[in-house]
Write a structure and sequence with these properties.
The complex is a heterodimer.
Chain A: H1 6-16, E1 43-48, E2 52-54, E3 70-73, E4 82-84, H2 92-96, H3 104-112, E5 118-119, E6 123-126, H4 134-151, E7 156-160
Parallel strand pairs in A: 1-5, 1-6, 1-7
Antiparallel strand pairs in A: 2-4, 3-6
Chain B: H1 2-11, E1 15-19, H2 22-28, E2 32-35, H3 50-66, E3 72-75, H4 93-100
Parallel strand pairs in B: 1-2, 2-3
The chains are: A alpha/beta, B alpha/beta.
């Protein structure tokens, strides 16, 4: 089947409710940092934006806008200890097995098999979207997030939008 | 999410996106993207299918090594063997209005 046209679908939905279209960022070019180590030596972190928080932490607000919250996730915590609060995707399956969208256990197995160097000390969940204040994102929140990755010696970030 | 990846990459750490929204990813253009035509929420597959989940993650890692062009977007072979639709689920007009208010 053809990929779902999310941009049109969201604009139609918003339009039908009398709201203006969401203005997606449009970029013609992309930044680039070469991956210079072999995978077997890379420390890898995961980032997911699906409203996933540990049950001991507050839930994400699924109605939020401009929510720049990003939680550190302990890679060794059991993956059945998380809650998902997001109204823009179907997280029924992810609620049964977090790895459907946030493959913490799978990355550990890949590390145990020696295919990557190490799992990072922290994974990340946040940046839920509906971000209208993008200058704050690019000037403050994302650079602060980068500092965390650097502190953990991350060589590669796997980002999973949802 | 793509914007965050762009900043992280710009500041010096390579990133790879695993996307289920092809059109959004094509607009935002993260540095490296794999598109998989599955329901948003099932990027890595079905509950309990550890082998299948691991395989997609492994493909993302290997793609990070192989990719050599900024903004590259590669389609994984379609493998979701049932139709799925745009998830209209739970977003109410009230929720959207709350987001739209500035």
């Amino acid at each position: 089947m053809e990929p779902i046209r999310y941009v049109d679908a969201l604009n139609n939905k918003y339009g039908a409710m009398g709201f203006p279209a969401y203005k997606w960022s449009v970029n013609e070019t992309a930044p680039w940092t070469p991956l210079e180590k072999p995978l077997e030596e890379c420390t890898v972190a995961l980032l997911v934006s699906g409203g996933i928080s540990h049950c001991s932490a507050p839930a994400f607000d699924p109605d939020a806008r401009n929510d720049h919250r990003v939680d550190a996730v302990d890679p060794d915590e059991p993956t059945d200890g998380y809650q998902i609060h997001d109204i823009y995707y179907d997280h029924t399956d992810a609620g049964r097995d977090l790895n459907c969208i946030f493959p913490i256990d799978r990355l550990r197995e890949i590390a145990d098999a020696g295919e990557i160097g190490a799992v990072a000390a922290r994974h990340w969940s946040g940046f839920m979207g509906r971000t209208y204040d993008r200058s704050r994102l690019t000037a403050e929140s994302a650079p602060a997030f980068f500092e965390n990755l650097q502190e953990d010696g991350v060589d590669l970030l796997v980002a999973v939008p949802a | 999410m793509g914007l965050v990846a762009r900043v992280v990459e710009h500041m010096g750490i390579p990133t790879v996106n695993v996307s289920t929204g092809r059109d959004i990813t094509a607009l935002v253009r993260p540095p490296r993207s794999l598109f998989i035509n599955r329901p948003m929420g099932n990027t890595f597959g079905r509950p309990g299918d550890a082998g299948g989940q691991r395989e997609i993650l492994r493909q993302a890692l290997n793609f990070a090594v192989r990719a050599d062009e900024p903004g590259v977007l590669v389609d994984l072979p379609a493998d979701w063997n049932e139709p799925f639709e745009y998830f209209t689920g739970e977003a109410t007009p009230e929720a959207i209005a709350k987001q739209m208010k500035t």
